[in-house]
Amino acid sequence: MTDNPNPTGRDLRDQGLTAVLAADEAVHRQYRRAIEQALDELIVEGIEFTADDVAERLPQDVREHAAPSLVSAVFAVYSRQKRIECVGFGTSSRRSRHCGAVRRWIGATSPPHAA
Length: 115
What we know:
Arc Repressor Mutant, subunit A
């Protein structure tokens, strides 16, 4: 947390990301590693992907027990590190998301996105 009595929205977002990532490490769940592995595989493949695609590659226990915000936090870290970039938006294929919007991503080392 910050000592700043008036944190900005960015400060609060960053604190939240840090807390989510730390919670996974603190209890030795290591779900983050499984999420990173799935994301790394998609980056290497050089294809567009969504969070749904990452979820499909996760072991069942990770899908069932990882905090939903953990996947988002890992995506945020990768995006800030310029390892992935958003190339558009789509509709979630997961039933639990009720056709909610999802970002489409591609690895930053992948060829440029064709329009």
